[in-house]
Structure prediction request, 374 residues.
Amino acid sequence: MREVCLIDVCDVIAGQSPPSSTYNQNGDGMPFFQGKADFGDLYPTVRYWCNMPKKLAKPNDILFSLRAPVGPTNISAIEACIGRGLAAIRCKDIELKYLLHYLRGNEDKIASLGTGSTFKAITIGTLKNLRIPLPPVAHQLKIATILDEADVYRQKTIALLTKYEELSQSLFLDMFGDPVTNPKDWEKVSTITYCDCIVPGRDKPKSFTGETPWITTADLNHLGYTLKSRNNIGLSTSEIKQVRARIIPKGSVIMTCVGDLGVISINKTDIVMNQQLHAFLCNEKLNNIFLMYNLSYQKPYMNKMASSTTVPYMNKTVANNTPAIIPPLKLQNEFATKIQAIELQKAQVQASLEHAENLFNSLLQKAFKGELTE
Prediction:
């Protein structure tokens, strides 16, 4: 199967963010997509609009995340302004769904091309020169159809997981109300009031030969539990000492503070984490499951208070001052017990999803080796 560069078969448009003073959430101007945080299941979610758009995506452009993280894709259903965290890929001599499946099936491989210490990013030049296998159009269509059909069960399973997640969110709101508006008038404090915190050092390990998981943003299971790194890497005792890292004890609430703000998880084992993350260790006034959900509603605060150069960033003070409501501990524990019951159901669905994804990934590998076109 012959290969071509992406730029040979597509137009690739680098995003350019408009002045921040032109952003709004009132629907004034053109929809504005900034990065992966805007991505939905297939089409992105409009969170902001702007009055001075720079670079535009058209309907049916593939939106590609260039940074923090590299690789996620979406399809633009509308004409929209795109920020510097995105590129728009406009298919010319390649089938849209074929290319979309290729990019998603090779996300980790593409992400490995990213560079940077604080966060990974890929240049627009690297994206343009990405090598793509290009079978005849009829074979592209056949591959896209097979993969679309194989993806149906996987997507239904993902949708069921989403329903469980919505149930958990609904349960929280029923019991406590929206933490931002605090309609039930709970005590409201800075999170650090009833927590200790751990902020990782800046030194990045040079080797990963141990058993203590090395956790980054990409490893977090939002509103769930994090057990290991996606790459199955960890640090030894000597490597931890070498970079002067602190071990984050099991049961801490982990929160992203760089890039995609407000991804929240609880670690199920002792971990070491990179500097994009912030850890809260609850005292006797806070249930960690309750706090995880509590913090997930504070993205408006995070986005407002974060400094932004290339990506949003919350320093230690801003992260620690994230607002938290404090209902009675008995009620927090009751909520946590109900969430744990939901998590058991989710675990069964997750096992089905892993089976579906293994089958789908097997088809992906065959597709791009030319084994589905015979």
